[in-house]
Design goal:
By secondary structure, the protein is of the alpha/beta class. It has one domain: HAD superfamily/HAD-like (Rossmann fold, 3-Layer(aba) Sandwich). The chain has helices at 52-58, 63-72, 98-110, 144-153, 161-165, 174-182, 193-201, 212-215, and strands at 27-30, 44-46, 76-81, 95-97, 121-122, 128-130, 134-136, 167-170, 186-187. Helix 6 (174-182) links the parallel strand 8 (167-170) and strand 9. Helix 6 (174-182) packs across helix 7 (193-201). It is globular, with a radius of gyration of 17 Å. The relative contact order is 0.17.
Length: 216
């Protein structure tokens, strides 16, 4: 069983990564709302929703240890969300959304100095020079936009079945799961988009519902 939070002295900020060959490396793609979180954020947060207590209660137990185990095994983790940066402008209160919202959550889970999850970095001209592993954008294209960024960063070929099989998806949207299935990606419940989506949405995803074969 995985625990969500442990004492900082007992859990280092960064894991020690095991080296694996590029062909063995898995690419884990996690949705944010209702996959990592228990309650849907509505793609925006403000006020009490940004309090540490609220965030800690809203992140599923076992998420932090799942991430550490995956990274310790030499694999990669991405967060792919429809949450959009522009959502923060929809309310009068000071709010966060998109990349900033997800990064805010990750900093609360792993510590303010964490570098496990990063957002896009831009140069002085405003050009993106590093996309990071938090990909947030309301593309509404079954996350093809997110997938394009991931395969480019990982040097994968979307036409190569072996490459696509190394992408492991955790997603509560059945249509997105079906789309990734069609691409040849690995899902948590083989051959069932609906059951995979339902499983990803469960509160105990990272404890009771995580098969060993999915993280080994």
């Amino acid at each position: 069983m995985f625990g969500l939070f442990s004492k900082k002295k007992e859990m280092p900020a960064e894991p020690v990564l095991r080296s694996v060959s590029p062909h063995e490396r898995r690419i884990y793609v996690l949705d944010f709302d209702r996959t990592i979180t228990i309650l849907h954020t509505g793609a925006i947060a403000y006020g009490s929703e940004l309090e540490p207590t609220f965030i800690r209660k809203n992140v599923k137990k076992g998420f932090a240890d799942f991430v550490r185990r995956v990274l310790n095994s030499g694999h990669r983790v991405y967060i792919a969300s429809y949450s959009d940066d522009a959502n923060a402008n929809l309310v009068e209160e000071e709010a966060v959304s998109g990349h900033e919202l997800i990064k805010f959550y990750m900093d609360e889970v792993f510590g303010r100095e964490q570098t496990l999850f990063t957002t896009p970095t831009k140069n002085g001209a405003g050009e993106v020079i590093s996309t990071g592993n938090i990909i947030a954008g309301n593309s509404q294209d079954f996350k093809q936009y997110h997938l394009d960024i991931i395969v480019q960063q990982e040097n994968l070929d979307q036409e190569n079945p072996a490459d696509m099989k190394r992408i492991y998806l955790l997603e509560d949207d059945e249509e997105v799961v079906s789309f990734f299935m069609g691409k040849g990606c690995t899902i948590i419940v083989p051959f069932s988009a609906s059951r995979s989506a339902d499983t990803a949405a469960t509160k105990t995803l990272f404890t009771s519902y995580m098969p060993e074969s999915f993280i080994a």
